[in-house]
Amino acid sequence: MSPSTSKSKKSASKKPAAEKRSVEEVVAAQQRIQQAQSQNDARAKASKKAKSSKDDKTRKKTAPGPGHEVPTPPMPGKKLAKPGHEKALDLQPLYLAENYRGSGKLEGKTAVITGGDSGIGRAVAVLFAREGANVAILYLNEHDDAKETCRLIEEEGQQSLAISGNVQDPQFCEQAVKQVLKQFGALNVLVNNAAFQQHAADIEDLNTERLDETFRTNIFGYFHMVKAAIPYLQRGDAIVNTGSVTGLSGSKELLDYSATKGAIHAFTKALAQNLMERGIRVNAVAPGPVWTPLNPADKNAEDLREFGADTQMGRPAQPEELAPAYVFLASQVCSSYISGIVLPVTGSVGAS
């Protein structure tokens, strides 16, 4: 047997990472994947001609924001280390939705949001609180971001709770739900939003570790949270999952991420049928490009500057533009006759 054959067999037989890992181990794994892809990108860049920058004068007009101006491309090109801290972004995402007026749509409810420290999760937490809900956020180790999100929830007059941990671990999910119940006495809305994303130009870049990380976070974590929450959800309560436009139309450089988002859409529709007799609604939101720490912790500087420019609206969404969709699907007042849908909020016409 040749040395190369032996090495290939050893590599093929390598087992996925153990299911139960600490937050530090998950962050370290995600940063290893990020660093490996950065090396691949550098090699690819060296073998190609640098793209010419687009002339700002030829840029198409962008869609208006939600009652006020929002940033448009070119976006800042600063890259973040995973898992991505919102505080480290040069251009802070817009999450306050200052033109949105609450009307008690979630009065007296308790919501849990995974990945709730920043980005879409933070914006959803703010509007849920504005609509009268107490909000618990689950996150990895972005403690500064989580603290700020809790402050924002409390500024809306509601109670907050931040829980650090790994949704890949079913025991953590169960413990987190019990902690929420102990503090608030109920659980009415679950928002599955935590995600891992790392681009890859070639399928050859997708090794076992990367596939394992993406699927364990993006789809296994959703299953674990639902199983932990289901015993406590009542008729009229709701689950809202975060899907993606990549789960609708694919993305050539996000093969594994797109696959998990397509799985989330199917999971949403199947779970909606499974829970229909219990009176628990299950829906999903499929965002297009949104300015959150997820993409600056993935893309290179050149791609970041053009982030969202290829949508028909000509720009990325801000988190505050996604949050009302979550309110709509979480509120029995708004969507009592809707279950099993994937709502596209993509910045382009006809995305479905």
From TrEMBL:
<protein>
    <submittedName>
        <fullName>SDR family oxidoreductase</fullName>
    </submittedName>
</protein>
<feature type="region of interest" description="Disordered">
    <location>
        <begin position="1"/>
        <end position="84"/>
    </location>
</feature>
<feature type="compositionally biased region" description="Low complexity">
    <location>
        <begin position="28"/>
        <end position="41"/>
    </location>
</feature>
<feature type="domain" description="Ketoreductase">
    <location>
        <begin position="109"/>
        <end position="294"/>
    </location>
</feature>
<keyword id="KW-0560">Oxidoreductase</keyword>
<dbReference type="Pfam" id="PF13561">
    <property type="entry name" value="adh_short_C2"/>
</dbReference>
<comment type="similarity">
    <text>Belongs to the short-chain dehydrogenases/reductases (SDR) family.</text>
</comment>
<dbReference type="InterPro" id="IPR036291">
    <property type="entry name" value="NAD(P)-bd_dom_sf"/>
</dbReference>
<dbReference type="InterPro" id="IPR057326">
    <property type="entry name" value="KR_dom"/>
</dbReference>
<dbReference type="InterPro" id="IPR020904">
    <property type="entry name" value="Sc_DH/Rdtase_CS"/>
</dbReference>
<dbReference type="InterPro" id="IPR002347">
    <property type="entry name" value="SDR_fam"/>
</dbReference>
<dbReference type="GO" id="GO:0016614">
    <property type="term" value="F:oxidoreductase activity, acting on CH-OH group of donors"/>
</dbReference>
